[in-house]
Amino acid sequence: MVLDRSQLFLIDEKEGFGPTFSHLVSMMNYVRSTTLEAVEGLTIEELDFLIHDGANSIGMLLAHMAAVERIYQIVTFEKRDPTAEEEEALAAGLDLGEKGKAAFNGFPLEHYLADLEAEREDTYRKFGILSDDWLFEQTDWWWGEPGNNYFKWFHVFEDEINHRGQIRMIKKIHSLQKEHLAK
Amino acid sequence: MVLDRSQLFLIDEKEGFGPTFSHLVSMMNYVRSTTLEAVEGLTIEELDFLIHDGANSIGMLLAHMAAVERIYQIVTFEKRDPTAEEEEALAAGLDLGEKGKAAFNGFPLEHYLADLEAEREDTYRKFGILSDDWLFEQTDWWWGEPGNNYFKWFHVFEDEINHRGQIRMIKKIHSLQKEHLAK
């Protein structure tokens, strides 16, 4: 995904989207650009590195971002729960843990980025045909309280930022450990 | 700050704010609620813990959030650079590092939360008297590209999420170290 930096710091109208969708897309674009920047050039060893046994690797976190986006497509666009098959396919990415550690291991960066980009294309294709009203449709959500679609997609990028912050920390810890071992 | 969870998952109209400001405030409220949840009940020792020598403690990250909010008030509401005095007062919180480590040490949680709440009150007071048009005003921003006020305030909460993700990781590493030492 090539992002035009001249638009990156403007939360404003985006061609092909309703006015409020444009704001959401503006934020999602910026967040994704920072995720891509954080992982640029990482090797398989760096993607698989674990700061402790129960930790998530950077590769696992990238896989998680793609899985979260997919599950929100199902829940909000298709207004349904995932099928047993989808749940099975997404479990490693959503739940991470031991399952995630086994599933996301040994892959080059391009593997994760291709998944992220494919999900994002699907999301934006759908955003482009929905009207802004859709964003304010509510369902029961967490703790039995109402949640609207704008919040649900905000949460998708909010979760990405959370993990991007962690990716930056993992990189720092990894480089300190390598320095330490080299001494 | 007491947040009503019945509104927390709705990005929608908020009393006292313009329609687009309402969306921004909705997001800022949710983010803040998760920050408060992440730090709830932390002791001074937990707030000061460093996962490595050059790391940021949770206390430092909370101080950073308040300092970022203050500098964005100056830059966007007052449309000016900080004075030398303000720069000096905010440097430890903005830049962190050794200066931040020295400045934010030995304080109880309430100290950081009071600062965060005071800045947020100032921000919302001003948001409440601005019209939505203000959000789309542009200035030169990073890398000489344009940035609007909506983006600038998005960045304030985006940075908070980033560090909240790190706070969650620091807590996990700290508890693992304590378990390890207890063995």
Automatic annotation (TrEMBL), chains A, B:
It comes from the Bacteria. It holds the Pfam family MST. This is DinB family protein. It comes from Mesobacillus jeotgali.
